[in-house]
Specification:
By secondary structure, this protein is mostly helical. It is built from four helices and two strands; from the N terminus they run E-E-H-H-H-H. The relative contact order is 0.11. Keywords: Membrane, Transmembrane, Transmembrane helix.
């Protein structure tokens, strides 16, 4: 009785225990060098450690950007009440409260979908800066340092979220 040559022996990856075919050089699941030298295995583990550190750092930047969305919401709310008490006009207060709610929703949503939430938050922030600059050009330079910091935090969060998406 002959054994068919179409049967290929399988074993398990030493790292993730995924079944792999004997003729493969790398695990298709995790990339572990199945037939690699000790140096190849060491490089594999070193790369995993570096990727984990990069991911942890990215999560911290995303968390800071998320906090920035909540801070923007708070600033807009306070500013809305300030305008209301100064002018007794309810319309700017309502607009500011709606925009604040949008930022809070984006902040909460950034836990599930950080990249899109942070991009939308940055676009909304830039749109608000442009609209207020059209209404009063002096607002463009007023608080410029804060504007740069907010844009910077959101941009770092976007970059980190996109780098995590590339790794995943």
């Amino acid at each position: 009785m002959e054994v068919s040559q179409s049967i290929i022996l399988q074993s398990e990856c030493k790292h993730c225990e995924t079944p792999v075919k004997e003729d493969h050089s790398f695990c298709s699941e995790c990339g572990f060098p199945l037939k690699g030298s000790d140096q190849d295995v060491a490089k594999f583990y070193a790369k995993r450690v570096m990727d984990k550190r990069k991911t942890n750092n990215a999560h911290e930047k995303i968390k800071a950007a998320r906090k920035t969305l909540f801070i923007i919401a708070a600033i807009i709310t306070v500013f809305g009440f300030f305008i209301y008490y100064k002018t007794q006009d309810l319309v700017p207060l309502i607009i500011n409260l709606v925009v604040s709610v949008v930022y809070i929703v984006l902040g909460v949503w950034s836990k599930q979908r950080p990249l899109i939430a942070l991009i939308l938050g940055l676009l909304l922030y830039l749109t608000l800066i442009i609209i207020t600059a059209i209404a009063d050009p002096l607002t463009l330079v007023a608080g410029i340092l804060w504007k740069i910091l907010i844009i910077g935090y959101l941009a770092k969060g976007i970059y980190s979220a996109s780098s995590i998406n590339k790794v995943a």
